[in-house]
Design a protein that fits this description.
The chain has 193 residues and is mainly alpha-helical. Helices cover 60% and strands 4% of the residues. The protein is built from 8 helices and 2 strands. The chain has a two-stranded antiparallel sheet. A hairpin with a 3-residue loop joins strand 1 and strand 2. Helix 5 packs antiparallel against helix 6. The longest helix is centred in the C-terminal third of the chain and has 24 residues. The radius of gyration is 18 Å and the shape is globular. It starts with a helix and ends with a helix. The C terminus is likely disordered.
Length: 193
Amino acid sequence: MAESSLDQVTQERPIEIEWKAFELRPAGSPPPDPAYRARVEEHWPRTIAMGRQYGVEMRTHRFGIDTRPAHEGAKFAEAQGTSEQVKAYHDAVFRAYFEEDQDIGDLDVLTAIARQVGLDAEAFRQALDAGSYREAVLAEERFAYRAGISGVPAFIFNDKYLLVGVHPPEQLKSVIEQIERQGNESLTSEEGG
């Protein structure tokens, strides 16, 4: 999969990234309002064009896929894998959904991804079957709602600056630089004061 804005930024700047779970349409949610679906359909060509900017040929925007298992799988990867496997897992899930039109709520699909990125596929499947990481996912989602997140992608910088939506790498770099300047200014005033 092509590089996202975030991938481009991390190639130039050593920043720590912590993935958090967020379901746009949690299982059990009422069906999307027809007006909402119509807006998604209307904006889909723009979404495809944005994806192409990053080398992603988006093929789907299916409604009704339960993404919670994919998030639980990410928590397994974080707990049991290396940082490279965590990134590979996220990339593979995005590719499976957006480019390959696979159901990322299907445990067979996710287990195949786990195997592909070098995770213990049997332990992965057992953890998802048992719901071992479900509460961790739900806790992160509660945090997201309290933080005011209502869409993806969403970036929280330094636990206090929220940026929602797809943004070019330059904008992400600008936010990081501003935070760094503020940090240096407060450090200087603390040292002098």
